[in-house]
Amino acid sequence: MNSVILSNSTRFIVLLLAQVVICNNINFLGYINPYIYIIFIFLFPIRENRLVLLLVSFMLGMLIDMFSDSGGVHAAAAICLAYARPVLLKTSFGMLYEHQSIKFSNTDLGSLITYVTFGTLIHHFILFSLEIFNMSSILLILKKTLFSSIFTVILSILIIILFSRKKK
After folding, report:
1. What does residue 32 show for φ and ψ, rounded to 5 degrees?
2. Which of 120, 114, 108 has the alpha carbon at shortest distance from 41?
């Protein structure tokens, strides 16, 4: 049990620092910003209490907001992603989720990509909707959501594969 807490704490800190130090300084073409901190929410242990996930996601989002000076939009988007996570897991992994037996280190790559893509789209749409907060700018919201999501999904899948796949 201690190793689970230690690995999640380490993942929390590393993703927070990577987001704040590296990813927040990437702004490609004005639309593309990777938000890799959501990997923490994706990989949070499934058997853990859902309230713990919601609280930790809120804390992660608030820390990103504090470092980014973004007024709570990351906290709101992170909580929405954490709240939607059971539906995303059930949609992407089906019976594996029903039996609480998902291990991200040996899941089907297609299911993992589906899970990360839908979760990222939800997170980014909420994030940019709250950031821009103007329905007349819906095309800008959709454009930022699409392009940032593509970049975030690619980075997230690569990071998940590199760091959570078991070495054979």
Report:
1. -105, 110
2. 120
Alpha-carbon gap, residue 75 to 77, rounded angstroms:
6
Which spans in the chain are helix H? 2-21, 39-43, 50-68, 73-93, 95-98, 109-132, 138-164
Direct distance between the N- and C-terminal alpha carbons of the chain, in angstroms, rounded to an integer: 24
Name, in order, each residue with C-beta under 8 angstroms of 164's C-beta and a sequence gap of 6 or more.
Answer: 43, 104, 105
Instruction: Report CA torsion sign: 125, 128, 133, 139.
Output: negative
The topology under which CATH files domain 2-164 is: Arp2/3 complex 21 kDa subunit ARPC3 (1.10.1760)
pLDDT computed for residue 106 by the predictor = 75
Structure tokens at 88: 């995303």
CA 100 to chain CA mean position, Å: 20
pTM of structure: 0.90
Is the distance from CB of 153 to CB of 39 less than 8 angstroms? no
Average pLDDT, the chain: 89
- Rounded distance between C-alpha atoms, residue 16 and residue 27, angstroms: 18
Domain ranges of the chain: 2-164
Whether 127 and 78 have beta carbons less than 8 Å apart is answered as: no
Q: Per mean pLDDT, which range of 15-19, 45-49, 82-86 is the poorest?
A: 45-49
